[in-house]
Specification:
With 335 residues, this protein is an alpha/beta fold. Helices cover 21% and strands 27% of the residues. It has seven helices and 17 strands. The protein has a nine-stranded mixed beta sheet with strand order 2-1-17-16-14-3-12-13-15, with helices on one face. Strands 5-6-7-10-9-8 form a six-stranded antiparallel beta sheet, with helices on one face. A two-stranded parallel sheet has the order 4-11. Helix 6 packs across helix 7.
C-alpha cells in the first residue's frame, strides 16, 4: 500500500499542547464498526459504552526523562535523546545539533558526560556515559526533561506526560491513550464490573519513527521491550473464552496482545510487530486510542481495525467538530 494513502491535513490549531484537566474531561468519539454510527461524548462517560465483563488492557510502562541537554567542547548546545540501554554505560540515542561525529564528548550538568562511539542507520548513535547503574539513573532524574514530541511546543512536566497507573520505568514516549483515565474513573468502572489487566511495552523509537518508504509493507519497526506474564495471559484467554470483550487501551497494548497472547508461559523480550491494513485481529475486540499523525504506523494500526477510508472519514468529522489531536488530544473508542 502507498504511504500517501494515509495522509490527511490537520489545522495546526487542533494539535493539543496541554492535557485536558481533569484528564477525563477530554472529548470522546465513539465509533461502532457494525453500524458505522458515530457518537460524540466526553471520556468521563465512557462507562456508557462499556459493560460488565469487559476487559480493559492497559500498558503500565512509565516514562523516564529521556531528553538531555548538554554542550560540546566548543560550547555549542546539543540534545541527546535516550532510546534504550545497550549494555553497561552504553546507550542507543538520537543526537540533535551540528557536528555530530564519533569521538565527540558531550558534557551535561551534575558531572554527567558521554562520548559518541558509533554511528548506526536511521540517525541513531551509540554513546558511552561516564556513569552507570543507579548513579546514572539518579543523574537523569535530576537533569533530564520529559520527552514530549516536537509538535508540543511548550515544556511539559513528567507528571503530565504520564498515565496515572504507570508503574514500570522504560518508555521514552508515553502510551497516550491512557492519559484520559483518572483514578476515580477507574474505580467507577471497576464498580460497574469492568476488569482491568496490565501489559508492558516500553515505548521506544519504533512507535514514533517516521515511515520513509513509499510502500508501507517495506517499513521495519524498531524493536521495543515488552512483558506479558503467564497469569495475565491465563485470565485474558479465559475472559475471551467466555465471550467477554477485550478492549485494548492504546496501540501499544494492541501490539502486545496480538503478538504475545498465545505464549502460555509468558514473555519478556523484544518485539517489532507492525500492524497495517490486511492484518486480521486474533484477540482484540475493541480499542481506545487517540487521534494520530498522518502517515504514522499508529494510524495504520487503527486503519487495520476500522478500515483506512473509514478512519480518514472519522478524522475529517473530528476535525470539523474541532477535536484535539495527538498525544495530549482527545480520545476515540472503537467497538
Amino acid at each position: 500500500m502507498k504511504l500517501s494513502l494515509f495522509d490527511y491535513h490537520l489545522p495546526r490549531q487542533l494539535i493539543a499542547q496541554k492535557p485536558a484537566k481533569p484528564r477525563d474531561s477530554s472529548r470522546l468519539l465513539v465509533y461502532n464498526r457494525k453500524t458505522k454510527k458515530v457518537i460524540h461524548d466526553y471520556f468521563y462517560s465512557i462507562g456508557k459504552y462499556l459493560r460488565a465483563g469487559d476487559v480493559l488492557v492497559l500498558n503500565n510502562s512509565k516514562v523516564f526523562p529521556a531528553r538531555l541537554w548538554g554542550r560540546k567542547p566548543t560550547g555549542g548546545k546539543m540534545e541527546v535523546f535516550l532510546l534504550k540501554k545497550v549494555k553497561g554505560k552504553i546507550w542507543e540515542v538520537l543526537i540533535g545539533g551540528k557536528a555530530r561525529r564519533v569521538g565527540l564528548e558531550i558534557k551535561f550538568p551534575k558531572g554527567l558526560k558521554c562520548q559518541i562511539i558509533k554511528k548506526l542507520p536511521a540517525g541513531i548513535w551509540h554513546v558511552k556515559f561516564n556513569f552507570g547503574g543507579k548513579r546514572f539513573e539518579n543523574s537523569i532524574n535530576k537533569i533530564g526533561v520529559a520527552p514530549t514530541p516536537p509538535y508540543i511546543k511548550s515544556a511539559s512536566n513528567l507528571k503530565d506526560y504520564q498515565t496515572v497507573y504507570a508503574q514500570k520505568t522504560g518508555s521514552v514516549a508515553a502510551p497516550t491513550a491512557g492519559f484520559h483515565f483518572t483514578k476515580s474513573l477507574m474505580a467507577k468502572l471497576k464498580k460497574q464490573g469492568v476488569q482491568f489487566e496490565y501489559v508492558t511495552l516500553h515505548v521506544g523509537y519504533g512507535t514514533f519513527q517516521p515511515v520513509k518508504v513509499s510502500e508501507i509493507e517495506k517499513h521495519k519497526m524498531h524493536p521495543e521491550y515488552a512483558e506479558l506474564d503467564k497469569d495475565t495471559i491465563k485470565r485474558l484467554i479465559e475472559a475471551k473464552r467466555r465471550g467477554r470483550r477485550i478492549v485494548a487501551v492504546g496501540t501499544t497494548s494492541v501490539r502486545v496482545l496480538e503478538s504475545l497472547i498465545h505464549r502460555p508461559h509468558g514473555f519478556r523480550g523484544w518485539i517489532n510487530t507492525f500492524i497495517y491494513p490486511s492484518y486480521r485481529f486474533k484477540f482484540v475486540d475493541a480499542m481506545i486510542t487517540n487521534f494520530h499523525l498522518p502517515k504514522s504506523t499508529l494510524l495504520m494500526l487503527v486503519s487495520a481495525l476500522v478500515g483506512r477510508k473509514n478512519v480518514l472519514g472519522i478524522y475529517q468529522r473530528a476535525i470539523k467538530k474541532k477535536y484535539r489531536f495527538y498525544s495530549f488530544g482527545d480520545a476515540m473508542l472503537i467497538v
